[in-house]
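A quick aside before the break. I want you to see a complete sequence-to-structure record at least once, exactly as it would be stored in a machine-readable document. Don't worry about memorizing anything.
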Amino acid sequence: MKTLEINNLVLAYLGDSIYETYVREYLINNEISHVKDLQAESLKFVTAKSQAKILHDLINQNIFTEEELEIIKRARNTKVNTHPKSCSIADYHEATSFEALLGYLKLEGKEERIEEIIKIIFSR
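That is the input. The structure line, written in tokens, reads:
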């Protein structure tokens, strides 16, 4: 199956786990040693609202290729039937599109590109 044929929500499902792993490693490498503190700090990165802001910041920095922007736009427009009560539907769509991009890049074997994006996020 071609990556572009995969449902955007499936790509986001994969991207969510990729992003969560990078965030957890980043926080642990910053010597946060209590789970409660790790959880609190992770919210700066992993909530739909924070992911939407991160995505907007990255778009404004022009770091995405045209191909990546197409994936983001396609995923942003994916119809969803539900979203968490803790965020707006707009933030949820933005977060889903960010996660879908990461899932897409992973399946395309572009781990170096994922790491470039992650480094930009953590250097903010």
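Two observations worth writing down. The chain has a mean pLDDT of 93. The CA atoms of residues 81 and 89 lie 10 Å apart. We'll return to this after the break.
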